[in-house]
Amino acid sequence: EPPSADARPVEMQLRDLEAHNHHLHETVAALQEKLKTLSHQVRLVHGQISSSEIKSSVEERNFLKALRSIAKEQRDLECENAKLTDAAGSRLEVVASRHSTARVSVSAAGRTCATGA
Description:
Blueprint: H1 10-98, H2 109-114
Coiled coil: 14-41
Keywords: Coiled coil
């Protein structure tokens, strides 16, 4: 048989392998600890992103609610304005007919709003 490439005694080779094995176990343990830390950081970042998305979503919903409220208020004011304009036009017609002057044309906007059209 050809001589072994490593002429050291088997006991020395075994100790070297055990030391290397121990070093590998320590490296694996350190890497597992780093992985745990990174996993924790990823969960924290994901939580912050989710929290930020929720906050953004809530702000967006509140903004849309405010816009709808403003649009409703604008419609209500337009209806009120149309009713007042219609009432004022009717009064002008009464005054004009009493004084036998030309009739004043009246906008139908108030009547349209009042019927819900």
